[in-house]
Specification:
Largest sheet: none
Distance between the termini: 47 Å
Helix content: 55-70%
Structural class: mainly alpha
Number of strands: 0
Order of helices and strands: HHHHH
Oligomer: single chain
Amino acid sequence: MPSTPPPGPDFDAFIRLQSELNDESPRGVVLISTAMLEEALRELHLAFLVPNASSTDTLLDGPNSPLGTLSAKIDAAYRFGLVSHSFCRDLHLIRKIRNDVAHQPKGFKFEDPGTEQRIL
């Protein structure tokens, strides 16, 4: 009988993510990683909600839906007790860096003063 792996981090997924991001610019790393985090939060919410029979979810889909923004997804995950206070804070820091990157017309580096202050 095959044994099931113990619950815990999916290190293979982490290695796949790392190899995918190796060829990205710092801007690409931030944008792709944040998009993946946002999708993971969406899936986390869906795991705790009653299934929706419709092809669109008015709670989660679209920028004007109650959980349509990354900020709303983060806050709801915390308030529902799905993530800790410190993880919520970290996700908001990542969101702020993503917003800076998305609106910055020039190149982005993790060593930029504003970003470095947020990370440290």
